[in-house]
Amino acid sequence: MDKQLLIYTANALVAGSKGLLAMDESTGTCNKRFAALGILQTEEYRRDWRELIATTPGLGKYISGAILYDETIHQKKKDGTLIVNAIINDGIIPGIKVDIGAKAMAGFPGEKITEGLDGLRERLNEYYKMGARFAKWRAVIAIGNGIPTRACIEANANALARYASLCQEAGMVPVVEPEVLMDGDHDLKRCFDITEHVLLTVFDQLYRQKVLLEGMLLKPNMVIPGLQCFEQASVDEVAEATIQCLLQSVPAAVGGIAFLSGGQSGKMASAHLNAMHVWHATKIPWPLTFSFGRAIQQPAMSIWRGAESNRHEAQQALYHRVKCDDAARRGEYTAAMEQG
Fold first, then answer.
1. Among this protein's residues, is 196 annotated catalytic?
2. What is the DSSP string of 114-160?
3. Which residue among the candidates 177, 179, 196, 240 is catalytic per the annotation?
């Protein structure tokens, strides 16, 4: 394990006011979003969509790293060159999703365990040869009646830590993503308590697996009430709760924190990230950035809808969202930026 190289890559991923673009939706998830917009669910259309993203002019100005899916890192543009090369040529570091999805956890109804550790060492080595310099593994933690259980949290935390250790062995920065889902009617405090418990458990396991904290990134959820909660929180309340939760559970040595959007709209995700920097910048010991997927992509996909004639306008929408997120990281995002 080259510790200095890992730290260098982690620092590069959170440098300046840039962030990560998550374009690692599985085939099933991508097809589901296509279907909702009347886009054909074929490999060709998925290729066209990912090529549209990767060739957005100026994307590298605001994006430091792009998380790819296995299909994408192998795909070629219409001109026969690899999509991953377009990303690299724009100064963006390629990353790769390496888990194979969250599956039902045996004996624990309503809970899931993420799989993909079998053969991971070999896959990581292959992805490294293809240009990937960081990886991502997502665990999902649902809040509901009697859940999450201790068994679910601990099993997912152990898998995240084992994945992270294998990544660093392969020279790749692990992005550790324990996502507490927004689904449900839980309030802000319950999300805070569960997120804190999850993060403390994850870092205990990372320590046990000898993961270099300076050479990893954390990709957590923001502390937000469930979507069905009667009492929603203000932007400032979410920012305050999220920062306080992280301060109580994340070691200062961690290379950086890049939030997932978790189903938030692009505007709301930008507003929350912005408030954290406006009101809490002096408290934060780590670089705090974004690793949004749907919050960046959805407006552009809604414009594109599979039509080549909409390509330019869709790219403009994508560029606008990453520009807003870059501003949010500097605490300079305003609602006025959304006008027009």
1. no
2. E---TTHHHHHHHHHHTT--EEEEEEEE--BTTBS-HHHHHHHHHHH
3. 177
